[in-house]
Amino acid sequence: MMDDWKTATKLVHAGARRSQYGEMSEAIFLTQGFVYDSAEQAEARFIEAGPDEFIYARYGNPTVRMFEDRMAAIEGTEDAFATASGMAAVNGALTALLKAGDHVVAARALFGSCLYVLDLLARFGVAVTLVDGTDLGQWRAALREGTKAVFLESVSNPTLEVIDVKSVAEIAHAVGATVIVDNVFATPTFSKAVALGADVIVYSATKHIDGSGRCLGGVVCGTKHYIRKVLEPYLKHTGGALSPFNAWVMLKGLETLDLRVRQQAASAQAMAEALAGNPKLARVIYPGLKDHPQHRVAMEQMGAGGTVVTFDLAGGQPAAFRFLNALRIAKISNNLGDAKSIATHPATTTHQRLPVEQKALLGITPGLVRFSLGIEDTGDLIADVMAALDAA
Asked: Could you report the per-residue pLDDT of 267-278, keeping only the tens digit for each?
């Protein structure tokens, strides 16, 4: 029956498990371990646990399993595994698959911590090639027979490059590579990753899925074989498990995700249009604007421009700081996808440790501000930004 449900319905009901008490809200099974009826039952479960049998919270938990099942249902994958953070998901998705001597090709425009994971893999003997993710010619040139995986952000952080996932997947699959997509900026609401050819989809649940700045979490979606035979052994033995309480928060976040994200994306579109052509800005970057280099791809892949607008103040870092300090509604922080609007200066925070040359290559300038739209009144947010620009 669930196969016939639309995403908004799956976000509320998919994966639900009810105890004998028939609770309406999902239960929090806040327990580390589980009791067996006999020594024989314990032995059998360690040999092979059934779909509703659990051993230890690091391996799985009923509340966490509800979150995993719901994410797999809405993403359209066979299975999912939840993690303690978004970066635990990225690290697990890559490290569980790769070994010394393997080759991975990745887009160069990545979150700083993702670049660190790739650097770490290189230190352990994995060959890493970085390419301009928007240039299909570079993907074709870098991929070779035996390439194990490709890794990309479907929309890059913070400069909002949109990668043609379908075309990259076709190139990668031609040489047998697994396609791993960090889909945070696309959000589960606008995701078409499976249809576009992604094999593994990664989310930081800390962002839109929680959506209220409460908990860390992550999730990896993929085939049952990949999740249970490749990823699960790595994560359960290295300890990247999501806590049952955080899983419960994520379940509650999913119930309103579609409503929040659609409002945030509509506000982002309105904000970008209001800022376009402003003389105080060197550029406005938003995939929903027709002058965005990958606007067509963004509309085909997501049908919307997303919840984040990036803009570059002509006065550089001093102007960016004056702008940030003048905001009254939006808060200065380094998260995104929150119900509250958040403004970030990537060059001095999230991407601070990148070399100056690499920042320049990625377009992370001293005047760049990443603005994550919340669910406040759109007019109030635009007025807040315009007033702060005047102060800058």
From this structure: 999 999 999 999
Cβ-in-10-Å burial (0-12, 13-18, 19+) of 335 comes to middle
How does pLDDT run across 5-31, given as a tens digit for each residue? 998 999 999 999 999 999 999 999 999
Q: Which residues contact 383 (CB under 8 A, 6 or more apart)?
A: none
Phi first, then psi, for residue 89 (nearest 5°) are -70, -45
Question: Does the pLDDT at position 3 exceed 90?
Answer: no
Listing from the earlier edge strand, what are the strands of the sheet with 200-204? 79-83, 218-222, 200-204, 178-182, 149-153, 103-107, 127-131
Residue corresponding to tokens 């020594």: 39
For residues 381 and 349, give the distance between their C-alpha atoms in angstroms, rounded to a whole number: 23
CB count in 10 Å sphere of residue 329? 17
Domains defined for the chain, CATH in brackets: 2-253 (3.40.640.10), 258-391 (3.90.1150.10)
Query: Is 81 within 8 Å of 236 (Cβ atoms)?
Result: no
Q: Cα(56)–Cα(327) distance, rounded to whole angstroms?
A: 46
Measure the CA–CA gap between 108 and 374, rounded to whole angstroms: 28
Classify residue 162 by its DSSP letter. Answer: B
Q: Say how many C-beta atoms besides its own lie within 10 A of residue 285's C-beta.
A: 21
Amino acid (1-letter code) at residue 247? A
Cβ proximity of 171 and 136 under 8 Å:
yes
Give the list of residues 6+ apart from residue 46 with CB closer than 8 angstroms, or none: 55
Per-residue pLDDT tens for 39-67?
Answer: 999 999 999 988 889 999 999 999 999 99
Cα 179-181-184 angle, rounded to 5 deg: 175
